[in-house]
Amino acid sequence: MKIKGQEYKTIWFENNTVKIIDQTKLPHKFQIKEIKSVDDAINAIKVMEVRGAPLIGATAAYGIVLALMENNERSFLDNACKNLIKSRPTAINLKWAVDRMYSKLKGVNSNKILNIAINEANDICEEDINFCKNIGMNGLKIIEDIYKKKKDTVNILTHCNAGWLATINWGTATSPIYHAHQKNIPIHVWVDETRPRNQGANLTSFELNEENIKNTIIADNTGGILMQRGEVDMCIVGTDRTLSNGDVCNKVGTYLKAIAAKDNNVPFYVALPSSTIDWDLKDSKNIPIEERNSEELSIVEGIDKNGNIEKIRIYPKNSRSLNLAFDVTPAKYITGLITEKGICRASKEGLNKLFK
Ligand code: MRU
Questions:
Q1: Is the separation of the CB atoms in 205 and 217 below 8 Å?
Q2: What number does the ligand 1 atom closest to the CA of 237 have?
Q3: Which of 14, 23, 204, 331 could connect to 346 by a Cys-Cys bridge, CB 3.0–4.6 Å?
């Protein structure tokens, strides 16, 4: 997708280094950062210079490439894999990518190992781009149907950033939106601000602006009243881990939107590539929910009138806060899952039909 008219991916391998767009600086500064070691990759994932389930998976894959470039001992690779998986707990793509790289490299002891790793990491990225593109084409049909009936601007609500910045290109939740826009369907997006790190306001709105898609940032609790007023035609969100029974773990606040959507007969879709499906875990209570630093709530970051990025505290110093980063939306609230293979019900049968 484009930034200032120029095509970018969110991560790429060039001259033996990995390059990323530093998302902690967006939307105020567009800065490309070099990741030169596996520790750099782990840090980029931890501090959310890269974020979003598919993108952290890709970063981990390149992290393994960097580990091999640093040290060719097996124990170094094993440790790198363990530390990459630990860097963020909830999004399953991270483990999926590390496992995929590890099994590709298992038993390879020759001097070809680095090239094999580079090719596999590149393949993970290419595959994600294709999956996200297909998600877009599949989701487009839903938007087209709404537009045919309504014959007016389609209002879509989204939460967090499941845009191209969270993937390699296209995004998951935003891909149907980009495809609809390319087909000249009038679209307007309600962008949940997504406290505390404001991925909606900082990232989703930013990328929609760059692609000239009309959008309005709303405080996280506004979705309910908009749905009651009939101002939301559909919701599309992403996911960090979807279980084989259709339960969806995503950015905290998704669950409340899904309940409001159900109460107001607003279709609620979740867009995901198959790399986000956790086929093993059976009970959503066992999904590790990341608890982030409470200062993400009490300290806000913005740009001052001189263009400097500043942090300010907004709470009493001695107030406690709890910062859970994700929640689980039970399958019963979800109208459908939009995947690279098609749209299915959020259920074991639905997912099995497409993937097994
Ligand atoms: O905490 P983040 O920003 O890494 O959260 C991940 C997300 O962007 C969302 O939960 C998203 O909707 C799923 S990733 C496509």
A1: yes
A2: 12
A3: 331
* 227 vs 292: CA distance, rounded Å: 30
> Which phi and psi (to 5°) does residue 234 adopt?
-160, 160
CATH number reported for the structural domain that contains residue 34 in this entry: 1.20.120.420
CB 351 within 8 A of CB 246: yes
- Say if CB 354 and CB 150 are below 8 A apart: no
- CB of residue 325 inside a 6 A radius of ligand 1: yes
- Residue 31: give the domain boundaries: 2-127
Reduce the DSSP state of residue 229 to 3 states and report it. coil
Q: How far is the CA of 193 from the centre of ligand 1 (A)?
A: 13
Residue 162 and residue 82 share a domain:
no
The number of the ligand 1 atom at minimal distance from the alpha carbon of 48 is 4
Determine the average pLDDT of the residues in 205-228: 97
Q: Is 87 in the pocket of ligand 1 (CB under 6 A)?
A: no
Q: Which two tokens stand for residue 93?
A: 């793509």
Domain end among 127, 162, 188: 127
22, 23, 160: residue to mutate for ligand 1 pocket, most atoms within 8 A of CB: 160
The distance from CA 345 to its chain's CA centroid, rounded to whole angstroms, is: 21
Q: Which atom of ligand 1 lies closest to the CA of 51?
A: 4
- pLDDT per position as a tens digit, 303-351: 999 989 899 999 999 999 999 999 999 999 999 999 999 999 999 999 9
Taking CA atoms only, the protein residue closest to ligand 1 atom 14 is 52
